[in-house]
């Protein structure tokens, strides 16, 4: 079995990568630069992961996304949320809409499918999970099911989107990542791309809560001395 892994170096995609690495005969990772705030950090961390595990790494630039106005691209304002609001559906839905990048997962998976078809790979692996799916419809099982159905008509080799974390929340993902020795010390969740995670964006807050729920220290923060 051969897989294309969409690796942003975020918590979810890093654990999904290690799942694929453990199960597949061959793995190639793809990282996208779409003008996101943390693109330099994400690419650098993804490069480190790929070098450490000696797998192929393709970096694809999508500069036109930078022309879209939004919180992650185009210089928009990052939404503010507190830790006790992470389970407030109305607040998190509004936050999700502000960081939404139009058709991002459709574009990423389509590129992954093209690579998989060209190189005769079987799987396109992503880190979609249940916690993200609560506010992002393109992380849901239904989205994956329909996308896989489309691939039966849109490709000749019919690669399949594989989502090993689809039923997990962030705490489950941390727990699983620790179990399989995923390189969590090289995973970057922060929306910002500064020297250290900001600790206050929604992504940082979800990561912190997940490690707290598991009762484990964050290997990234330990590595950088935070």
Note down, in words, how this protein is organized.
Helix 1 packs across helix 7 (170-179) and helix 7 crosses helix 8. The mean pLDDT is 95. Strands 3-2-1-4-5 form a 5-stranded parallel beta sheet, sandwiched between helices. It contains 9 helices and 5 strands; from the N terminus they run βαβαβααβααβααα. The chain has helices at 11-23, 39-53, 89-99, 104-119, 130-133, 141-154, 170-179, 202-214, 219-224, and strands spanning 2-6, 26-33, 56-61, 123-125, 160-162. The chain has one domain (2-224): Rossmann fold, CATH 3.40.50.620. With 226 residues, the chain is α/β, with parallel strands linked by helices.
In total, the number of strands is 5
Give the total of domains.
1
CATH architectural category: 3-Layer(aba) Sandwich
Total of helices:
9
What CATH calls the topology is Rossmann fold
Main β sheet profile: 5 strands, parallel
- Give the full name of the CATH homologous superfamily: HUPs
Mean pLDDT across the residues is 95
The helix-strand sequence is: EHEHEHHEHHEHHH
Question: How is the largest sheet built, in terms of strand order?
Answer: 3-2-1-4-5
Overall shape: it is globular
Distance between the termini: 39 Å
Which class in CATH terms?
Alpha Beta
pLDDT below 50 for ≥5 consecutive residues: which ranges?
none
Helix content: 40-55%
Content of β-strand? 5-15%
User: What would you call the structural class?
Assistant: alpha/beta
Radius of gyration, whole Å: 17 Å
């Amino acid at each position: 079995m051969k897989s294309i892994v969409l690796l942003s170096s975020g918590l979810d995609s890093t654990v999904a990568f290690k799942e694929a690495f453990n199960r597949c005969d061959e793995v190639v990772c793809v990282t996208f630069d779409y003008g996101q705030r943390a693109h330099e950090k994400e690419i650098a961390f993804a490069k480190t992961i790929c070098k450490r595990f000696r797998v192929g790494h393709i970096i694809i630039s999508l500069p036109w996304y930078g022309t879209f106005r939004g919180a992650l691209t185009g210089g928009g304002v990052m939404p503010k949320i507190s830790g006790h609001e992470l389970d407030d559906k109305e607040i998190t839905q509004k936050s999700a809409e502000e960081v939404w990048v139009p058709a991002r997962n459709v574009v990423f998976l389509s590129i992954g499918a093209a690579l998989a078809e060209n190189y005769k790979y079987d799987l396109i692996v992503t880190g979609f999970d249940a916690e993200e799916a609560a506010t992002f419809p393109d992380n849901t099982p239904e989205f994956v099911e329909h996308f896989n159905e489309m691939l039966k008509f849109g490709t000749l080799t019919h690669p399949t989107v594989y989502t090993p974390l689809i039923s997990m929340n962030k705490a489950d993902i941390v727990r699983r990542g620790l179990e399989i020795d995923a390189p969590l010390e090289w995973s970057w969740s922060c929306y910002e791309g500064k020297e250290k995670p900001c600790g206050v964006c929604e992504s940082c807050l979800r990561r912190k809560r997940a490690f707290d729920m598991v009762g484990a220290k964050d290997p990234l923060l330990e590595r950088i001395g935070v």
